[in-house]
What does this fold into?
Amino acid sequence: MINMIQYLEKNPSLLTLLKEKKASLVGVTELEQKAILDSFDEEVCLESTIWY
It folds into this structure.
């Protein structure tokens, strides 16, 4: 899954297609795909940050 995220970082146009549901990730469950897309959502990343 890390390789897929790295690939999407290098190809942001594919990320856009995934968010618009015009593309899908073969061999990835719907839950995994949601987790991958959420990892690119800045709001989710900022909300889940824990400071000690």
